[in-house]
Amino acid sequence: MDVAVRELSYSQAIQEAMAIAMEADERVILMGEDIGVYGGAFQVTGDLVERFGPDRVMDTPISELGGAGVAVGAAVTGLRPIFEFQFSDFATLGMEQIVNQAAKMRFMLGGEVSVPVVMRFPAGSGTGAAAQHSQSLEAWLAHVPGLKVIQPATPHDVKGMLLAAVADPDPVMIFEHKLLYKMKGPVPEGHYTVPIGKAEVRREGRDLTIVATSIMVHKALEAAETLAGEGIDIEVIDLRTIRPIDRETVIASVKKTSRLLCVYEAVKTLGIGAEISAMIAESEAFDYLDAPIVRLGGAETPIPYNPELEKAAVPQVPGIIAAARDLAKGVR
Amino acid sequence: MATAKKAAEQSNLPFAYTRYSHEQLKDVLRKMYLIRRFEEGAEDSYMRGLIHGTMHLSIGQEASAMGICMPLTDEDQITSTHRGHGHSIAKGADVKKMFAEFFGKTTGYCKGRGGSMHIADVSKGNLGANGIVAGGIPIAVGAALSAKRLGNGKVVVSFFGDGANNEGAFHESLNMASIWKLPVIFVCENNGYGMSTSTARSTAVANIADRAAAYSMPGVIVDGNNFSEVAEASHAAIERARAGEGPTLIESKTYRYRGHSKSDRNRYRTKEEIEDWMTNRDPIALFETELKEFGVIDDHGIEAIREDVAREIAAGIEYAKEGPMPEISDLARFVYTEEVA
């Protein structure tokens, strides 16, 4: 049976996934700040409140800590909440419940409970929202055993991974780059899942592997197309999940290309690039490396307001092209 | 004479004596002893090096735990605190599985992964003690949200201490519970000190229950060392919650005899203060006096309960000693529901 595939935006794909999950299971509820009639700060929930009512599309007070905790408590006792943090930066306010409670409750109780909560985090820079509304904090949460952390990069994946997250018995944190919300792409109708913990090779190549996350996948693909014109053949891996990491896909690729460039928006130091680099250094792929591993990450600064400074604070296509070219040509 | 007095005061007996049978009241006394002897047994095992880590004892607060839990069913749920042994037993936990947990054994409630500070018994609705002050309060509100949405008639009790009332989670949780009229009862066991800091120094209101007004819910103050008074407040709050009228804040004023934890040098309160509570306001002694006064039990009956509890505690410790330790190879179990590479 053919499944119709349409063009949807990333935010429409999220909304469709939530609607499908809510249609299929009465236990699925949405919680968050201004997700009801307002439709969410980024219009991701949109008009869902009209379809499912305010009891299932629940506006919370501006209470990130308490709200996250209510979602955790509801998940433990039979509901399947999808909790939206209005901005991922506000995870800092809910951290106690995410890190100490959601992530550890199953373990502390010796497996007597599961915590099937989904938390959504609009993340990243590029909107002129300055330092407290533009961060990429996914590595903070990926450092915590008990959580799963995903960064879908396409409308297709965000729908399938959100549906996988709702079905997952454990807490899943979804980091959605805000600049992706309007990006369109093919999305199949109906229910499907994209597995958590599996990376995707977006572009095959022989000369160099770029491991990228979220919006950087698209920038890496653009860089790869440009460099193809120079005869440099780049493999681009969309990591998609940062906990648990798909080791096999990354290691196999590096063994093939012998060169690795990590590209991510979060602050470079102690980020996902460090983890990928160490993973390769510890693996059999290390012996295949023909050059030092290179990381391109965010600057060691808060995200600035000025648009030119803001762009300079995170990797951009020209920088990726330059780094990849140097790495492929052995300049480094 | 006790019987004559009982007859004379039949019309204005304390709540518990009109509500509960003699058998139930004797069982309450038994459980209060069970809590105290359990904690003494845990403390003794700790001193002898059989239990590691730390623990927070609620000796002196037994009437509060029992009074609140008495009207709850096994389906009703609680969230508890780092000082949660009494809540656990009051909610129906088996002391042998609690001891086994403290000893780090796989036969414990949390299979040795949680210990004292995360003691739980999900089968009896205890969603767990919590190492984070106020950490359990939003979780209780979430459980109450489930109860309301799923229409299962459950109510949820969130136990916390006076220290928690100054956490942001307290404010956020009580506000949400009130606006959504959720079936949850907030029980602040005010034992006078958040670790070393007295409520007088930490809290801007005279009574924590006064804060209920800010959330448009009833705020009730009870003598936490008086079982009947606590049970009466609990009944009323549970009735209100089950009727869909929303949450209640109960402040149960009580006292802990032991220090905050095993590191406490008791420098923030006087010996006289502690002795006064132990001598004049001990919840078990007060309850025994009442039970005898109203003809529920005599000294023989009390002695029989004490002996029975002592046997159960001794058997519990033996059970804990005999249980197997977790396999080191099982370290990563229970991090996720399905094994993750």
UniProtKB/TrEMBL annotation, chain A:
Its cofactor is thiamine diphosphate. GO terms for molecular function: oxidoreductase activity. Transmembrane segments: none annotated. It holds the Pfam family Transket_pyr. The keyword Nucleus does not apply. Residues 8-183 form the Transketolase-like pyrimidine-binding domain. This is Pyruvate dehydrogenase. It comes from Aquamicrobium defluvii.
UniProtKB/TrEMBL annotation, chain B:
SUPFAM superfamilies: Thiamin diphosphate-binding fold (THDP-binding). Keywords: Oxidoreductase, Pyruvate, Thiamine pyrophosphate. InterPro entries: DH_E1 (IPR001017), PDH_E1_Alpha_Subunit (IPR050642), THDP-binding (IPR029061). Its cofactor is thiamine diphosphate. It catalyses: N(6)-[(R)-lipoyl]-L-lysyl-[protein] + pyruvate + H(+) = N(6)-[(R)-S(8)-acetyldihydrolipoyl]-L-lysyl-[protein] + CO2. It comes from the Bacteria. Residues 30-328 form the Dehydrogenase E1 component domain. The keyword Oxidoreductase applies. The keyword Oxidoreductase applies. GO terms for biological process: pyruvate decarboxylation to acetyl-CoA. One of its GO terms (molecular function) is pyruvate dehydrogenase (acetyl-transferring) activity. The pyruvate dehydrogenase complex catalyzes the overall conversion of pyruvate to acetyl-CoA and CO(2). It contains multiple copies of three enzymatic components: pyruvate dehydrogenase (E1), dihydrolipoamide acetyltransferase (E2) and lipoamide dehydrogenase (E3). This is Acetoin:2,6-dichlorophenolindophenol oxidoreductase subunit alpha.
